[in-house]
Amino acid sequence: MIPRYNRPKIQSIWSDENKYKIWTEIECLIAEQLSNIGKIPKNAAVDIRKKAKFNVEEIIELEKETKHDVVAYIKNVSKYIGENAKFFHHGVTSSDIIDTSFSIQLKQSAEIIEKQLEILISILKQKAIEHKKTIMIGRSHGIHAETITFGLKMGSFYFEFKRNLKRLQIAKEDISVCAISGPVGTYESIDPSVEEYVAKKLDLTAENVSTQVIPRDRHAYFFATLGIIASSIERLSIEIRNLQKTEVCEVEEFFEKGQKGSSAMPHKRNPILSENLTGIARYIRSGINPTMENVALWHERDISHSSVERILAPDLTIASDFALARLTNVVENLIIYPDNMKKNINKLGGLHKSQKILLALSQKGLSREIAYEIVQSAAMESWNNDKRFEDIINNSEKIKKYLDQNELNDILTRDEDLGQIDWIFKNKF
Questions:
Q1: Burial class, 104, CB count within 10 angstroms (exposed 0-12 / middle 13-18 / buried 19+)
Q2: Of 44, 62, 90, which residue is a domain's last?
Q3: What is the percent of the chain with per-residue pLDDT over 90, rounded to a whole number?
Q4: Active-site residue list
Q5: Confidence at residue 340, expressed as pLDDT on a 0 to 100 scale
Q6: Structural domain tally of the chain?
Q7: CATH of the domain at 367
Q8: Which of 3, 108, 131, 390 has a 20 to 30 A CA-CA distance from 324?
Q9: Number of H helices and number of E strands within the chain?
Q10: pTM of structure
Q11: Does 202 map to a domain?
């Protein structure tokens, strides 16, 4: 991932230094258990644990010759171990080390993303409660519908990201697997107890059948989860962008001192962070399909998945972490304009109360179909002639035949009654 969109903590997980550190720990644990069951001398395992170290630059140079990263790594570490290096990487394959390490890196990344999700969820809940009674117009198809509250809108996102957190936790558990089963996964060259030992020490679960590599459906599920999270990020970002339109102006991204909105137009205050998040979400989702295609490998293994994972695993996890952190900042510092929300509600002169009139007419014994036609006719007159809906209703003889003026006034002039909002927050949050 380019520096612009990464944060150091998760970036470090995908560094060569961290990767080889994990490899070394796996190899040391393998040696420990082999010595426990008498497959290699005790002193050899102690020696490996004591002396095993690596040099990233040296490994890079060795790989130019070996054309194999694990072989280059083994060669480098063996130099530091000395005589007992013959028991290093004993009975295992490259995939045993690479795949188990990959699981750990994904788990480490998931834990960082998980924490950021928890922060975002907390802020969304805070905003929902704070604006529980902040009245605004609800929109369907981009058109004024009926009133809702900004808190209810934020509540929708709160629960969506709570679901995303649960999805990530499941995906993290699913990917937290260890495979130390030797060539083609038969344990012919390595005792199964080694796998169990390594898994326990690293807080992983031993894979059921690894076919030499950990089955890639686990990885596909993990990255697909990041794709769903990205879609939620985009949904909230688009909502903010739409509500920040000049003609709407119900919310606005915080505009810092010295910030510029346009190189040409000094008045501009653009939702650049939300727009950026929309783009990052698209990028994250674009990486999901290749990880799905990685599931279908030849026979017990090939390496067609390797290049995909080397590129996408760091990028998708880093981008997910960055996007969640940026979105958290946007939501936390979001400027809310309740007065503009009220202005927009009243923009069409009570048109959003059409259903209330419809229901009132139906309750007077009028068929729903006829009641609908009467109210729709009044609504279309309001739309087409730029007239206030309230005025049309008050002067409609068809409607006043069934509803007296007091009843109409009660519907048209009462404060927005969203009594069920309290019930939603009491029973759902």
A1: buried
A2: 90
A3: 81
A4: 141, 262
A5: 97
A6: 3
A7: 1.10.40.30
A8: 131
A9: 19, 6
A10: 0.93
A11: no
- The confidence score (pLDDT) of residue 404 equals 87
Q: Can you read off the two tokens belonging to residue 385?
A: 């002639």
Tokens found for residue 33: 């258990």
User: Same domain for 162 and 271?
Assistant: yes
CATH number at residue 10: 1.10.275.10
Residue 24 included in any domain: yes
Indicate whether 276 and 375 sit together in one domain. no
Q: Which residue has the tokens 């069920």?
A: 420
- According to the per-residue pLDDT averaged within each range, which of 163-177, 263-277, 336-350 is highest? 163-177
Kindly state the helix (H) or strand (E) to which residue 382 belongs, with its residue range: helix 368-385
Better-predicted residue by pLDDT, 105 or 393: 105
For position 265, what pLDDT does the model report?
66
Alpha carbon distance 201, 190 (integer Å): 17
Asked whether residue 344 is assigned to any structural domain, the reply reads yes
The predicted pLDDT at position 416 comes to 65
CA separation for the pair 399, 310 (Å, rounded): 69
Q: Which band of pLDDT confidence, cut at 50, 70 and 90, is reported for residue 264?
A: low
**Strand runs labelled E in 51-204:** 135-140, 143-149, 177-178
DSSP 415: P
Query: Which candidate, 27, 170, 17, places its Cα nearest to that of 97?
Result: 27
**Mind listing the pLDDT tens digit for each residue in 235-256?**
999 999 999 999 999 999 997 7
335 and 221, same domain (yes or no): yes
Distances in whole angstroms, Cα of residue 372 to Cα of each of 85, 184, 278, 378: 85, 70, 40, 10
> Which of residues 90, 116, 132 is at a domain's end?
90
User: What confidence category does residue 64 fall into, taking pLDDT thresholds of 50, 70 and 90?
Assistant: very high
Q: What is the CATH number of the domain that holds 270?
A: 1.20.200.10
Say what the pLDDT of residue 43 is.
95
Q: What are the backbone dihedrals phi and psi of residue 206, each rounded to the nearest 5 degrees, phi first?
A: -70, 130
List residues bridging with 143 in a β-sheet. 140
| Radius of gyration over every alpha carbon of the chain, rounded to an integer in angstroms | 31
Residues 24 and 62 grouped into a single domain: yes
Residue 220 domain-assigned? yes
Q: pLDDT tens across 122-135, in order?
A: 999 999 999 999 99
Residues 6+ apart with CB under 8 A from 48: 27, 28, 31, 81, 84, 85, 87, 88
> Do both 48 and 114 map to the same domain?
no
Dihedral pair phi/psi, residue 245, rounded to 5°: -50, 145
